[in-house]
Design brief:
The chain has 194 residues and is α+β, with helices and mostly antiparallel strands. It is built from 8 helices and 6 strands; from the N terminus they run αββββαβαβααααα. Helix 5 crosses helix 6, helix 6 packs antiparallel against helix 7 and helix 6 packs parallel to helix 8.
Length: 194
């Protein structure tokens, strides 16, 4: 299975990304466009055997614009992160290669999913699109950066609404007091109070 995996990567996956302007290093594919840096990583499952090999496809985007709002402890980390199954409904969470697999169908499906995932990634065209993705999910991920971005751009109304969303979802949890202090510090930077 390892040899089959290597063949699919070499003959199909690497050419797929190269044709779209991505640089390749091992199982990582990189591309920068304007303020956004894209990274796609193929991560082999750590418990593979000689009869079964499985892998994940991971995505990340780093925004130079959002980086200025990132806490020092998180510098260099991606702003958007997901696995292929989170952004392409037809894609599995993990791909499996076994002796019984139809290699042509497997490869065609994988390439289709990769293409669909890139189409999705390219809808996240700027910092605002990335934060809106997480705000729609009332996610804690990127919440400090979201408040920094919104307040810096003068969108206090959206920041207040997002704070209400987060508080409604997470306010009863013990960690809310910690989060609220972090958010208050962000607001204070703009001369505002929670």
């Amino acid at each position: 299975m390892q040899e089959l995996f290597k063949t699919i990567i070499k003959q199909d996956v690497k050419p797929f990304f190269s044709a779209r302007g991505y640089l390749t290093k091992d199982l990582n594919f990189y591309k920068t466009e304007g303020q956004l840096s894209y990274k796609i990583n193929i991560q082999k499952f750590k418990y593979n055997t000689h009869k079964q090999l499985s892998f994940y496809v991971n995505y990340s985007i780093r925004s130079e614009e959002l980086a200025q709002y990132r806490p020092a402890s998180s510098l260099g980390l991606a702003h958007f992160i997901a696995r292929i199954g989170n952004i392409v409904p037809a894609a599995p969470e993990r791909y499996f290669l076994t002796p019984e697999v139809d290699v042509d169908k497997f490869t065609a499906d994988l390439l289709l999913h990769l293409d669909q995932s890139l189409q999705f990634l390219y809808t996240l065209t700027d910092a605002r699109a990335i934060i809106e993705y997480y705000m729609q999910r009332t996610a804690l991920h990127l919440s400090e950066e979201t408040f920094g971005f919104l307040l810096d751009t003068g969108d206090t109304e959206t920041a207040e609404q997002y704070l209400k969303q987060l508080q409604a979802k997470y306010g009863a949890e013990k960690r809310w007091a910690i989060l609220e202090k972090k958010y208050a510090a962000v607001w204070a930077k703009y001369g505002l109070k929670l």
